[in-house]
Specification:
Blueprint (H helix, E strand, L loop, with lengths): L2 H5 L3 E2 L5 E2 L3 E3 L15 H12 L4 E3 L3 E2 L19 H11 L5 E7 L14 E2 L17 E2 L2 H21 L3 E6 L4 H6 L14 H4 L1 H14 L4 E7 L10 H14 L3 E5 L19 H6 L4 H10 L4 E4 L5 H10 L4 E4 L1 H5 L3 H6 L16 H5 L2 H15 L11 H22 L1
Parallel strand pairs: 3-4, 3-13, 4-6, 5-6, 6-9, 7-8, 9-10, 10-11, 11-12, 12-13
Antiparallel strand pairs: 1-2
């Protein structure tokens, strides 16, 4: 097969649902909600652009399940049916051309900045490393009833997404957010049924999955984004990740997306372009293919690998190898929303994505500029504009800081 033919193949999921091709947009936090966290018409414009560009599955970014706990200013929060009309428009836009759109459901846990939340929660009261304590408060440990409430919030938000017409949901279990915090022995040092052993630490994610499945039924797509590892001393390991995957597969999960890292070690935002992965990984483009191959030895569950894909040949080779079933793309689809269509028409492409550096070590180590600059390009697409393909260095950084600070202050003033 040519790359175009291989990447154009449909993919049938365990529940019978079929994705039209092998391109998937991985979740990126759009921060296009209102200041009080409602969806906007811009989200429909954005996801229509990706659907029209050929992306078979689009996964939304960071839809929060609790208005009291958000990760960034202007996150969308879904707690009830009050925004059903706007949510439905968003879903319909992402389905143009027969594509699918899933809602990523998330709770930030301790990864909620001080400017938004002075009382963050986590499995245990473990602070961030000292370099980040100026940005994030030390969380308090969740109580048992609070944990049960959060589980039901995931299910309630999923049911609203289903009613709005979305094709599925993805549980955000990666990148150091709450589900990931429960899985990690570093962040979760509880001694009750929700912590301690690896089996107890994965009890929370299994409870979330079961609650969503009960609320939405067997025909609704449910996936998860999961770290291969935290890449943090005393954190979540590859062995533990494989055990979580086996448990979720036994429960009937439809799709597993593999990623890695957290705010303290953001492997998800650092690229091969920055020289942070070994040569063999750079040759294969995707960062987490080796781990995906270990997963494939355990199960035939559909897999999505995100991070590092830059050429049509690299994408097609990953599918042909059997290591992954979907090519997860994030930044490439921000600078070139029509990239899947171009590949499926037979073009040879190399993504226009380039590393972004400010020269400020703390900013660069946390990949803040990478995340923030692409968020600004997402906003351009949402306004019907063409995204830029290259940054303006420190000028872009100052623009991003100004926008995020203003949004954070407005959010706090409204809440307080």
């Amino acid at each position: 097969m040519t790359p175009a033919e291989r990447l154009s193949q449909p993919l049938k999921l365990p529940n019978g649902s079929t994705l039209p091709n092998r391109f998937a947009k991985s979740a990126m936090s759009e921060t296009l909600g209102t200041i009080d966290n409602h969806p906007t018409k811009e989200l429909a414009t954005l996801y229509r652009a990706w659907a029209e560009g050929g992306t078979g599955l689009s996964i939304t970014g960071n839809v929060m399940i609790d208005r009291r706990h958000i990760g960034e200013p202007q996150n969308v929060v879904v707690e009830d049916e009050s925004d059903l009309e706007l949510l439905s428009a968003w879903a319909q836009a992402g389905q143009v051309g027969g594509q699918q759109i899933w809602v990523q459901l998330n709770h930030p846990g301790k990864q909620s900045p001080k400017i938004l939340n002075r009382d963050p929660v986590s499995p245990s009261a473990i602070p961030f490393k000292k370099e980040l304590r100026g940005m994030f408060a030390t969380p308090r440990a969740l109580t048992g009833p609070e944990i049960e409430d959060i589980i039901q919030r995931f299910a309630r938000s999923a049911a609203v997404a289903q009613k709005a017409g979305f094709d599925g949901v993805q549980i955000h279990g990666a990148h150091g957010y709450l589900v990931s915090q429960f899985l990690s022995p570093h962040h979760n040092q509880r001694t009750d049924e929700w912590g301690g052993s690896a089996a107890n630490r994965r009890r929370f994610v299994l409870a979330v999955y079961r609650a969503i499945r009960e609320a939405c039924g067997d025909g609704f797509n449910i996936g998860i984004k999961l770290n291969s590892a935290d890449f943090q001393r005393g954190g979540f390991t590859e062995e533990e990740s494989l055990a979580v995957i086996e448990a979720l597969v036994a429960e009937g999960i439809d799709l597993i997306e593999i990623s890695g890292g957290n705010y303290e070690n953001p492997a998800m935002a650092r690229g091969a372009e920055n020289g942070e992965v070994k040569a063999s990984t750079q040759a294969r483009e995707a960062y987490f293919l080796e781990f995906a191959e270990k997963v494939r030895q355990l199960t035939a569950v559909p897999l999505m690998v995100t991070g590092g894909f830059r050429t049509e040949s690299g994408m097609a080779d990953a599918i042909a190898s059997g290591a992954t079933d979907l090519v997860g793309l994030a930044r490439p689809l921000v600078v070139e929303p029509d990239l899947p269509n171009r590949i499926m028409k037979g073009e040879q492409v190399t993504s226009a994505v380039r590393p972004i550096k400010t020269g400020i070590r703390l900013i660069d180590d946390m990949a803040l500029m990478e995340v923030s600059w692409y968020t600004r390009q997402i906003a351009r697409i949402a306004k019907g504009k063409t995204p830029k393909q290259h940054d303006r260095g420190l000028l872009s950084l100052m623009e991003v800081i100004g926008v995020m600070t203003t949004r954070g202050v407005r959010t706090r003033l409204r809440a307080g």
